[in-house]
Amino acid sequence: MGQAHHPNAPWYINAICTWALSIVIFCGRIRDLFWRRPQTRTGYADLSDQREDFYNRRMYRRIHDCYNRPISSAPGAWIDVMERVDIDGKAMSTQPDLVGGTRRCLNLGSYNYLGFAAADEYCTPRVLDSLADWGVSTCSSRTEAGTSAIHRELEQLVAEYIGQEDAITFGMGFATNAASIPAIAGPGSLVLSDALNHTSIVAGVKASGAKVKVFRHNDMAHLEKLLRWHIAEGQPRTHRPWKKVIIMVEGIYSMEGETTLLRELVALKRRYKAYLYLDEAHSIGCMGASGRGLCEHAGVDPRDVDVLMGTFTKSFGSAGGYIAGSKQLIAYLRRHCPAHLYATSMAPGVAQQIISAIRLMRGEDGSDRGARKIRQLKDNSNYFRRRLQDMGLHVLGDWDSPIMPIMVYHLCYISGISRRCLQRRIAMVVVGFPATALLMSRCRVCISASHTKEDLDYALEVIYDVCSKMGLQYAARQLPWPWCWLRLLLWPPAFGNYRPGDSSSSYEKGSSKSSSSGSSRVWAWLGGGSGKGVMKAHSAAAAAGKAQPLVTAAA
Amino acid sequence: MPHHRRLPSEVDINKSVNWINSPGVWVWYISLIVAVWLLTSALMNDPGLAWTYVHLIHGVTTYYLLHWTKGSMSPGDPTEQGMYDRLTVWEQMDSQIYGTSNRKFFTVVPIALFVLATHGADFRKQPLGLNLVVVLVLLIAKMPALHKVRIFGINQY
């Protein structure tokens, strides 16, 4: 399916956001002049420079109850968020204290694409058996005493599943990139990296000493221009040819939900004799008809991609990362990658979870639960994305991708959205500066195969309510000025496209929504919030969320 | 070396300054100046002389924000690792390339304010001298020849 458009905020939204930010920063600066905390240890240098630390102290800390929320259950479709003291806008240097209770919330924040985060009837017993057989930790690195039959089985299985010759696995996903890229690229290499690549790739490339050139996100014309120019120029100053040229992209970008243009990349790399490094952290397991990642989804032979990297944390409910490639590459990495040589190897239980999950996805447990999981994930994602777009929200990402960033643009809004959603039992991640650009804050939804349609509908109700009240419906049809402002004054935002009771769904069965009464439907159409009848059904769902079975039978 | 480069255009990955390229930021900047002018001319009787005050306030503020404060807005960011700690905001803008439309805009604004201030003060000698000093300091600070130059080591660290 085609690439989603990349919406930018219209100019007046940016101007208003910059105004609000300048007021916040101005007030922060005034506070810094008069109400600065005195030095606690005289004679010692500050741990962080007061001027550099401004964003952290005066902006991030004021809303830090929206981040680092502790949970106390497995991150399945519903999650227990621990309740904390209300910080009431005060900037604190310590985390707020726990109050003692937990709040059962719909989990839209975990990377639980295939639903393996909760206990599974096939995987969990096998993991527990492996604990009894192999113990909890290997207590060694791979080269010393940490390689076991489980690791060999895992690597072989991963290589077969991906469609490459061989694979190597590591205990940590971030370290897979940060430690392998320096082994692959080095001084004298040229790395062409997408503008929105993850920090682990940037850290690895910086550590390698290779020369980096950044190309505009998913812009193949820019990449080709850079390739032509820099291959022709050669290394800086000496103009010698580059030792190797590597193009680094991600399968799905976690802040955009977009896939990369894999076919064009493979064509480019063949033409200019460059290597291609594909980081499939978010796309392995959830893209493609059988979950084999972006290569399957885009119709590209996996052997055309030189280095296929991925992690097991997202779709397989486990931990760690892998690199799959030719036998030569993997043998080289086994001798040269510090994460393999020195870091403790993957714990046996962790490896067994991945093995069981992959076997389940391939149907080796004798049922079709694996295929059903992927279908459920795709259906859930497309349904949710279409409903969000019908609401008039700016949603990034491609169809079939389970990540949906809803654009907020305004940095000052994200705390309000986060708190309101938590109060309505939706655990959604909000992202601001510096994880995103300053004027491109967003809240991100991660859909799971274990979400039921009732869960998704409840989430859509709450999101519609919160977003319409905060005026986030940037894509909806607007009245010409000045009637749009007049309408905003008289009654809350109302948009003809969307009624909370609708379900324009891709599900064959009829929707399970309860019908609201006539007057509440009119009020709902005006955007005044969902009718009481609809809310009752979903508070029932929320209460039912408390009684989620440990083992998810359906998905 | 001042960089009027003709390489394929760079992507600005400097999060502290690439928001300046977003649409609508110039509108914010102009509206901020106009708002300050409205405020000052409400507080004093002479709106023409208010332009002088606006010009001086603008000069001091932009000198401090653009040419004095250094470093990144997110200092703990591992992708930057202190690359921009010695660079002022003006130097960091547009991937340290001069001659972009952004830079031209920020150069024209003090000149326009200077013209408004001198006209508003009816070209009297005293405000003219002060305005002239301010605009010259700002223009010299924005020249590509002064990229990463610290006179007498002031503000180097």
UniProtKB/TrEMBL annotation, chain A:
<dbReference type="InterPro" id="IPR015424">
    <property type="entry name" value="PyrdxlP-dep_Trfase"/>
</dbReference>
<comment type="pathway">
    <text>Sphingolipid metabolism.</text>
</comment>
<feature type="compositionally biased region" description="Low complexity">
    <location>
        <begin position="503"/>
        <end position="520"/>
    </location>
</feature>
<dbReference type="InterPro" id="IPR004839">
    <property type="entry name" value="Aminotransferase_I/II_large"/>
</dbReference>
<keyword id="KW-0663">Pyridoxal phosphate</keyword>
<comment type="pathway">
    <text>Lipid metabolism; sphingolipid metabolism.</text>
</comment>
<dbReference type="Pfam" id="PF00155">
    <property type="entry name" value="Aminotran_1_2"/>
</dbReference>
<keyword id="KW-0443">Lipid metabolism</keyword>
<dbReference type="InterPro" id="IPR015421">
    <property type="entry name" value="PyrdxlP-dep_Trfase_major"/>
</dbReference>
<dbReference type="InterPro" id="IPR001917">
    <property type="entry name" value="Aminotrans_II_pyridoxalP_BS"/>
</dbReference>
<keyword id="KW-0746">Sphingolipid metabolism</keyword>
<comment type="similarity">
    <text>Belongs to the class-II pyridoxal-phosphate-dependent aminotransferase family.</text>
</comment>
<feature type="domain" description="Aminotransferase class I/classII large">
    <location>
        <begin position="105"/>
        <end position="463"/>
    </location>
</feature>
<dbReference type="InterPro" id="IPR050087">
    <property type="entry name" value="AON_synthase_class-II"/>
</dbReference>
<protein>
    <recommendedName>
        <fullName>serine C-palmitoyltransferase</fullName>
        <ecNumber>2.3.1.50</ecNumber>
    </recommendedName>
</protein>
<keyword id="KW-0808">Transferase</keyword>
<dbReference type="InterPro" id="IPR015422">
    <property type="entry name" value="PyrdxlP-dep_Trfase_small"/>
</dbReference>
<feature type="region of interest" description="Disordered">
    <location>
        <begin position="501"/>
        <end position="521"/>
    </location>
</feature>
UniProtKB/TrEMBL annotation, chain B:
<feature type="transmembrane region" description="Helical">
    <location>
        <begin position="105"/>
        <end position="121"/>
    </location>
</feature>
<protein>
    <recommendedName>
        <fullName>ORM1-like protein 3</fullName>
    </recommendedName>
</protein>
<dbReference type="Pfam" id="PF04061">
    <property type="entry name" value="ORMDL"/>
</dbReference>
<feature type="transmembrane region" description="Helical">
    <location>
        <begin position="127"/>
        <end position="146"/>
    </location>
</feature>
<feature type="transmembrane region" description="Helical">
    <location>
        <begin position="50"/>
        <end position="66"/>
    </location>
</feature>
<dbReference type="GO" id="GO:0005789">
    <property type="term" value="C:endoplasmic reticulum membrane"/>
</dbReference>
<keyword id="KW-0472">Membrane</keyword>
<feature type="transmembrane region" description="Helical">
    <location>
        <begin position="25"/>
        <end position="44"/>
    </location>
</feature>
<keyword id="KW-0812">Transmembrane</keyword>
<dbReference type="InterPro" id="IPR007203">
    <property type="entry name" value="ORMDL"/>
</dbReference>
<keyword id="KW-1133">Transmembrane helix</keyword>
